[in-house]
Amino acid sequence: MDFKTLFDLSGKTALVVGAASGIGRASALGLADFGAHVIVADLNLEGAAAVVSEIEAKGGQATAASANIGDGSSVTALIDGIPRLDVLVCTPAINVRKRLLEYSDEEFDRVVALNLKGNFRLLQAGGRKMVAGGGGSIIVFSSIRSQIVEPGQGVYAATKAGVLQLVRTLAAELAEFGVRANAIGPGVVNTPLTAPIKQNAAWYDAYAKRSALGRWAEPEEMVGPVIYLASQASSFVTGTIHFVDGGWTAIDGRFTPPL
Ligand SMILES: NC(=O)c1ccc[n+]([C@@H]2O[C@H](COP(=O)([O-])OP(=O)(O)OC[C@H]3O[C@@H](n4cnc5c(N)ncnc54)[C@H](O)[C@@H]3O)[C@@H](O)[C@H]2O)c1
User: Fold this and answer.
1) Which of 34, 57, 146, 201 is buried most deeply by CB count within 10 Å?
2) Residue 108 near residue 114, CB atoms below 8 Å
3) How far apart are CA 63 and CA 16, in angstroms?
4) Which residues line ligand 1 (CB under 6 A)?
5) Chain-centroid distance, C-alpha 46
6) How many folded domains does the chain comprise?
7) 252 is a domain residue
C-alpha cells in the first residue's frame, strides 16, 4: 500500500452543510484541496457561491447549493440533487447563552430545532444516500460542551451531547453498509458564532487561557481532523468524538502549582 494516498479524496463527492461561514467554509476549502468535488451548501446561498469561487480560484471543483436543514423538504431536495455522496460534513448550530431558569420555550425550541432536529434530518437523508451508494463517512460538529458545561450553556450543551449520541448510533447501525460516523469536538474557534465573545476582552482571554495551548483556534485548524475522518486514513475509526480543543478537556487549567 502507498500510504501517501491515505488522505486522497480524488473522485469523491463531499457535501458540507453550513459551508458559507466559519468551520464549514474551511472544511469545504480543505476537502477540495484533497481532490473532492465539494457541494457547498448553506442557508446563505450568496455566501456559499463565494466559497465556490474561492475553491475554483485554487483549481478545485465545487458547486453551490441552497439548503435549510430546518425544513425537511429542503434537506430531501438537497440530497436528491446529488448523484452520489461519499462524505457528509454537518456544521449548522446556534447558541442562546442564557441561564436555564431564564430560558424561554421559544428559545429552547429554536436551539433544539436547528442543532438537534436539523442535524438529525441531514444525518438521516445523507445516511440513506450513503447506504444506497455502498458506503461513506459522516462527520458532525459537536463540541467540548457535549461533555463539560458552564453557566449559560445548558440547552446548547444538551444538543451537542444529543448529536454525539446520534453519531454513535449511526456508527452502530450503518457499519454493515460501509458507512462510518464520527463527531469533532472543538474548543473555542474564531468564527461568527463566537464573535459576541470577542467583544468582551475578559471573556475572550479567559477562554484562551483555559486551554493548554493558551489561545483560540482558527477555523483552518479543524481541516486536518475533517480530512482524516473523511478519508481512508481513518478506515477503522467510527463512533468517536475527536476533540480539537487545544487540550481544554484534558487539563484542570485553573491553577499551576509552584513546582
Ligand atoms: N466556533 C466555535 O468556537 C465552536 C466551538 C465548538 C463547536 N462548534 C460547532 O461547530 C459548528 C460550526 O460552527 P461555526 O462557528 O463555524 O458557525 P458559523 O455560525 O460561523 O457558521 C454556521 C453556518 O451554518 C449556516 N446555517 C445556519 N442555519 C442553517 C440552516 N438552517 N440550514 C443550513 N445552513 C444553516 C449559517 O448560514 C452559517 O454559514 C457548529 O455546530 C458549532 O456548534 C463551534
Assistant:
1) 146
2) no
3) 11
4) 17-18, 20-24, 42-44, 47, 67-70, 91-93, 114, 118, 141, 143, 186, 188-189, 191-194
5) 20
6) 1
7) no
Q: Is residue 178 part of a domain?
A: yes
Mean of all residue pLDDT scores within the chain: 97
Q: Which residues are catalytic?
A: 156
Atom of ligand 1 nearest to the CA of 21: 39
Does residue 258 lie in a domain region? no
Give the Cα separation of 179 and 252 in Å (integer): 36
Alpha-carbon gap, residue 11 to 14, rounded angstroms: 10
Report which of 217, 242, 216, 218 is spatially closest to residue 228, judged by C-alpha positions. 242
77: CATH: 3.40.50.720
List of residues 6+ apart from 47 with CB closer than 8 A: 20, 21, 25
DSSP bridge partners of 42: 66
Q: pTM for this one?
A: 0.97
Residues of the chain above pLDDT 70, percent: 100
Domain annotation covers residue 222 = yes
Q: How far is the CA of 61 from the centre of ligand 1 (A)?
A: 23
Q: Whose CA is nearest to atom 17 of ligand 1?
A: 193
